[in-house]
Design goal:
Blueprint (H helix, E strand, L loop, with lengths): L25 H10 L5 E11 L4 E11 L3 E8 L7 E5 L2 E6 L4 E4 L16 H4 L9 E11 L2 E10 L9 E7 L5 E7 L5 E13 L2 E11 L6 E11 L10 H5 L3
Length: 251
């Protein structure tokens, strides 16, 4: 079974056909897409809106990252949630709950649990590696859709890979490598959720999708949306920043 405590959506390099864009393989293109929102390091401000059948909520987040091993997400609004934070440092992940002044290390059994009541999991927000090590990639479609030239990729896990999804499909625009959507299937090949990308704009000196919307298939009408208001890439930050002290900080 392709099960894991994390959601590291990764792909192994393989002998794929070369593509028109610079003779890159399918895996090289997916790797480039995966790096778009991350860079070598980054700092951003985003708002997350969660819509469920029974309630809605909105949170503002400040987010830092360094490579694939380090990330810190801190809630800044609303006031009742301000200071709540999630830290990933290499293989360890913690949550800080300021209302009870408690730091909790997240066990493997909770990595797929909902983060802050959203449709994202704990690991979605602090995923520990890129999309290049655990999945094989194939191109299932290449051509025009709705007037735009795109590739559609199929990501299937390698036999030894400890991953969550049985299959992922991913559409990417050819001209600028912007992702348009990703669909996640379970081991029975049932669609579980769809992630869409939109509001393409230049932020931090590069074109990025500033909006993402996650739709769970088993909960029609529900969604979690993330909107970036600002993001900077390749900032000056080191591993020492990603500490338990920073996790508890309210600055």
């Amino acid at each position: 079974m392709h099960r894991t405590c994390t959601l590291s959506l990764v792909l192994a390099l393989f002998s794929a056909p070369t593509l028109a864009r610079g003779q890159e393989s399918a895996s090289e293109i997916i790797d480039r897409v995966d790096r778009i929102m991350r860079g070598e390091s980054s700092h951003g401000i985003a708002t997350m809106d969660v819509v469920t059948e029974n309630w809605d909520r909105s949170m503002t987040m400040e987010i830092w990252s360094l490579g694939t091993d380090y990330s810190l997400i801190r809630i800044t609004a609303p006031n009742k949630e301000a200071g709540t934070a999630t830290l990933k440092a290499v293989d360890d992940i913690w949550n800080y709950l300021p209302r009870v002044d408690r730091t909790i290390k997240i066990p493997a059994s909770l990595m797929m649990g909902a983060w802050m009541g959203s449709h994202f999991t704990n690991d979605d927000l602090v995923k520990e590696s890129r999309l290049i090590e655990d999945y094989d990639i194939e191109i299932s479609f290449e051509g025009e859709r709705e007037g735009v030239e795109v590739w559609e990729f199929v990501l299937t896990p390698k036999p030894e890979a400890a991953v969550v999804w049985g299959r992922i499909t991913y559409e990417v625009r050819k001209d600028d490598l912007m992702p348009t959507w990703a669909r996640y299937y379970d081991e029975d090949d049932t669609l579980v959720r769809t992630l869409t990308f939109s509001d393409y704009r230049v932020m931090g000196g590069r074109l990025v999708p500033a909006a993402m919307d996650l739709y769970p298939e088993d909960k029609p009408g529900e969604r979690t949306s993330v909107r970036y208001s600002e993001i900077d890439f390749d900032i000056e930050i080191d591993e020492g920043f990603f500490s338990l002290r920073s996790l508890r900080s309210r600055r």
